[in-house]
Amino acid sequence: MLALLLAATLSKPIPIAVWYGGGKVRAPMLDPDPLAHRDEWRADLRQIKSLGFNSVRTWFDWASAEPREGEYHFENVEQLADLAQEAGLKLIVQVYVDSAPDWVGKKFPDSHFVSISGETMPSHAAPGYCFDHPGVHAAVLRLLTTIAQRMRSKPAFLGWDLWSEPHVINWAEATYMRSAEFCFCPYSVARFRRWLQQKYGTLDALNRSWYRRFESWDDVEPNRLSTILSYTDYIDWRSFITQKLTEDLRARYEAVKSVLPDAIATSHAAAPNLFTSPLSGDGTPDDWQMAGVVDFWGTSFYPKHSFAVGRDPAWRGALLDFTRSATRGNFWIGELQGGFGTIALRVSSTVTPNDLRVWIWSALARGAKAVNVYAWYPMSSGYESGGFGLINLDGTITERARAAGAIAKVVDANRDFFANARPAPAEVAIVYNPLAYMVGGRRPLAVAGAQSEIAAIERNSMLGYYRALFPTNVPVDFVHINDINNHHYKLMILPYPLMISEDAARALKDFVRNGGTLVAEARLAWNDERGRAKEIIPGFGLNEVCACRETAVQMTASGKTDVILESGDRFKGAFYQETLAPHPVPLPASRGEGGRRPGEGAIAHFADGSPAIVTNNFGKGKMMAIGTFLGSAYESDRDEALAKFIRSLLDWAGVARPPAAPVELRTLESGSQRVVFAFNHGDVPVEVGLKGFDLETGAAVDRKAIAPNDVWVVRVKN
Question: Which of 90-94, 443-447, 571-575, 660-664 has the lowest mean pLDDT?
């Protein structure tokens, strides 16, 4: 199916779009009288087209589209579809059902979202009503099939974004609710029970797993407490929420595809899982799961949002590479920041034309198949009032808009290349493991003072390794721990591995046995997927792979611990100091006296002399066990000695490094064609040599001084 979709895409543009809902209304609001402003909309669309954009992304909200049951109003979308066709633009339609009509709540008074405390959340323009309610479920899908039928006759219509930044609760925060978590309504609870029945089969099996005494499935409730006996029930609840979001997106997808099977259907996250937590009370999707039920999954991308200091290049690269990895390269940028951001009194630093150039080309360099700039006009109301616009609210065009439009022209002129191009395959992967967040169940890891960075240790552990490797220009993937068997990497780094499943442990063992190089941090497989501690750590027999075991572990008073290499170089780890002693497993006689081959054993110690890092050969591959958390330590401290050690893992695993370069280099390939992107993230010009043709100007080139915060795009000669 995907091959057919990509083939069909060749006849369509690679959307470089702006969000535009008709006039100066902000999403998800709509102009109440579109016909009266038709000429103004026409002028806006002509301006958008003249700058080089090939698409616009409009929207509709359920409250406006169906103010009374069965009475549908899609005049705004239909008028934009006609005007887009007239202007030579394609149309993408964003769906908002969280802005729901009041009649839904009146007809289905038991359809409101219910928090963990039993409090009911009213819908005031958002968040709407629970999709688990059969009446709401049917009404939403009926809405989608109806709008799909209207789009049948619109040649400009390209496709959908079916869910903007999916959560169980969208666009609402009840500040009066303490530790709000959703949804505990009777319909969600019933759905959870069905999910448990499918997972466990029998009530006896559930009782054994949860250490409970239920006599009927009707007695089963989602976990609401932190208990000392078991938190398997909490793990099940959070896993259910993640899968529920995936199934809900699939239902929307199937609804529109039943009417318009050839139209592209997408959705996008608020941020990839690298920057989110599956424990979030509003519900967090799994990027890998969501990508599997739509044509293109994507992300929002706000590098400055409403902050005085924008996100740095490694942070931006990690966001894009995480999304690319989760989608296997089939991703859209659902929202890209178009101008300075505001959140009430907070205002971001200025967004420059070069910012837009670097951000857009960074996404395209990683294989993005669409970029949607948010938004054409700044927000006209709400706590984002005046922010995020590509042009000014009075309609004057900015240099940012011209810069973004110029890129759109280049992409359109090279449509076939960008439709088929893929980044060079990676030999290195950082493992994403959602179970790592579950350690401790509902009891949060609350650490203050010197250890405050530990509160984000799952994210920082991944981001730190990515950041340390970023300057090498070695391509890095993120791989879901449940997807290890479907990839072939030379090096896999497993940060913060405190809880993994038995299947994942088996896959890791096979990876090393078959020739891979595995680097794992402290307390590997301490807990299994039910939250049960293993008798030996590393658990599930992974102690045999690294030929060592934990004999002691402690948290240090400062939150840091010294690690000293055999060379005398030293750096600091974070949070844990885990002593790793040789494990008494039978060793082949061929290893000689002492039982170890060269390159095996402790290569670093803690300050007290106990082993801190141990290496071992296993099967055709090898493993390194680290008794602390280095990724998190590097993300917080940026110690160059630690960065040097992390980069040395590439050489240890036999990963080829490209020649050193003073800029970030990314490559896209399609058949015999190759385009190289050179990003200068510094504050002075940098001269770079690339022989070929400048993709933006068409001129033959071999060398250029790239300005600060700018990018050079070259179709290189092979």
Answer: 443-447
Tally of structural domains, the chain: 3
pLDDT of residue 443: 75
Looking at residue 455, what is its pLDDT? 66
- What dihedral do alpha carbons 154, 263, 402, 344 form, nearest 10°? 100
Residues 584, 548 contacting (CB under 8 angstroms): no
Same domain, 415 and 521: no
CB distance 319 to 308 below 8 Å: no
Where residue 116 falls (left for φ over 0; alpha for ψ -120 to 50; beta otherwise) is alpha
Of the candidates 638, 618, 715, 625, the one whose C-alpha atom is nearest the C-alpha of residue 673 is 715
Section 365-388 average pLDDT: 96
- 536 with 671, same domain? no
Helical spans, DSSP H, in 152-231:
186-200, 203-210
Q: Which has the minimum average pLDDT: 30-34, 39-43, 582-586?
A: 582-586
Residue matched to tokens 């008798």: 535
Of 473, 481, 493, 366, residue with least CA distance to 428: 493
Q: How far apart are CA 114 and CA 459, in angstroms?
A: 29
In a domain, 198, yes or no: no
Q: Count CA within 13 A, CB hemisphere, residue 483.
A: 21
Q: Which residue, 72, 22, 65, 60, is CA-closest to 42?
A: 22
How would DSSP label each residue in 177-188? STT-----SHHH
Among residues 393, 421, 449, which one ends one of the domains?
Answer: 421
The answer for residues whose C-beta is within 8 angstroms of residue 17's C-beta and 6 or more apart is: 53, 54, 55, 56, 57, 90, 92, 370, 371, 372, 373
Q: For residue 537, give the H/E element and its range.
A: none
Six-digit token string for 238:
């959070």
Helices (H), 258-343: 287-291, 313-327
**What's the CATH code of the domain at 676?**
2.60.40.1180
Please determine, for residue 54, whether its predicted confidence score (pLDDT) is greater than 60: yes
pTM of the prediction?
Answer: 0.95
Query: Looking at 604, 621, 652, which one is the last position of a domain?
Result: 652
Q: Give me 419's structure tokens.
A: 């439709």
Residue 415 DSSP label: H
Position 229 in a domain: no
Any domain includes 7:
no
The predicted pLDDT at position 615 comes to 97
Q: Are residues 380 and 459 in the same domain?
A: no
Q: Are 315 and 272 within one domain?
A: yes
Q: Is residue 267's pLDDT more than 90?
A: yes
Task: Judge if 480 and 546 occupy the same domain.
Answer: yes
453 and 497 together in one domain: yes
Which has the closest alpha carbon to 56: 128, 153, 127, 161? 161
Domain containing 508: what range? Answer: 428-652
- pLDDT tens, residue by residue, 466-494: 999 999 999 999 999 999 999 999 999 99
Which CATH number fits the domain that encloses residue 158? 3.20.20.80
Domain check: are 526 and 408 in the same one?
no
CB-based contact 712:690 (threshold 8 Å): yes
